[in-house]
Amino acid sequence: MTTPIAVTIAGSDSGGGAGIQADLKTFSALGVYGASVIAALTAQNTRGVTGIHDVPPDFVTAQMDAVFSDLDVKAVKIGMLSRASVIEAVAAGLDRYGPLPVVLDPVMVATSGDRLLAPEATEALRRELLPRAAVITPNLPEAAALLDSAPATTEAEMRRQAHRLIEAGAQAVLIKGGHDSGPESVGLLIEPTRETRLSATRVATRNTHGTGCTLSSAIAAGLARGLDLVEAVREAKDYVTAAIGAANRLHIGSGHGPVHHFHAWW
Questions:
Q1: Average pLDDT for residues 173-197, to the nearest whole number?
Q2: Which of 22, 39, 117, 160 has the fewest Cβ atoms within 10 angstroms?
Q3: Which helix (H) or strand (E) is 264 found in, with range?
C-alpha cells in the first residue's frame, strides 16, 4: 500500500500554531506523511510577528529538488511566500516535478494583523501561482487584495470575486467567510461549471491562529489520499470546524492561540 505524501511550501511559525508547523500537524492528523520546503522563517508567537527572514530562492530550489526527486508526492500546499523571487523559484520547481494538485493559500496577513507578503510580490503570486493551483483558498481580505478591491460583505459579492479570480487564471476558488461576522461561517467553492456552499456554526473563540493554513493543508491531505476536490474541501472544512471548536481546551500563549489539530486524540 502506497503511503500518501503531501508537501508544504510555506513559512515557519516559531510559535507552532500556523505555517509549516500547522501544516505538518494537519497532514499527520489526517493520515498523510508530510514533507516540507521552508520558504521563510518568522519570529512570532500568539501575540504577533516580530521578524521575517526570507530563505534565499536557490535554497528553496534545493529543498524542492531534494524532496520531489525522492518522495512520491501526491499533493502540494503552498502558503507564505513573501518575495517575488521565491515565488518564481517555487513556480519553476512545480513545472519540473508536476503536474501535481496544488492548494494555494495566498497568505498575506497574519491573524494578528501583521503583513506577511511584500506588496511587490502580489503580482508575482497572481502571475506565477494562480494558474498552477488546483484551488486557491483566500479569505475575504486576501481575495480583495488579489483583486485590488474592497472585501466582500455578502455571499453574492464573495461569489463575484471568486469568479473574477477564475477569470484571472485560478482553476477553482474556495473563498472563506471566516472574517465575516454572521452566526455561521460560510465558504464558497467556486469552479468554472459548479458551485458548492459550505457552512458551519461560528465558534466563539479567539484561538483561531493558523485556521487558514490548517484548512488549506487539510484540503491537500485529502487530495493526496485520492479524494476529489469537493470531497477534500468538505472533509477539510469539517476538520477545521472541529479543531476550532476544541481550541479552548488548549492553553497556549496570551494572544490568539492555535486551533487544536489533535482534538480527536488529546
A1: 85
A2: 160
A3: none
Is 208 among the catalytic positions?
yes
Domain ranges, ordered by start, for the chain: 5-249
Note the pLDDT tens digit of each residue in 17-34: 999 999 999 999 999 999
Angle between helices 211-224 and 229-245 (to 10 degrees): 140
Based on the residue annotation, tell me whether 213 is a catalytic residue of this protein.
yes
Treating both helix axes as pointing N-terminal to C-terminal, what angle do 84-97 and 57-68 enclose, rounded to 10 degrees? Answer: 20
Q: Which CATH architecture has domain 5-249?
A: 3-Layer(aba) Sandwich (3.40)
Residues 6+ apart with CB under 8 A from 146: 106, 122, 125, 126, 138, 165, 168
> Would you state the cell numbers that stand for residue 151, as one nine-digit string?
472585501
Q: Is 257 a catalytic residue?
A: no
Q: How far apart are CA 53 and CA 41, in angstroms?
A: 5
Catalytic status, residue 201: no
Known catalytic residue at 210: yes
Rounded Cα–Cα distance for residues 212 and 220 (Å):
13
- Residue of 212, 222, 237, 241 with catalytic role: 212
- Model-level pTM greater than 0.90? yes
Q: No. of H helices and E strands in the chain?
A: 8, 9
CA nearest neighbour of 186 among 172, 173, 170, 175: 175
Could you tell me if 49 and 12 are in contact, meaning their C-beta atoms sit under 8 angstroms apart? no
Using the predicted structure, report yes or no on whether residue 178 has a pLDDT greater than 70.
no
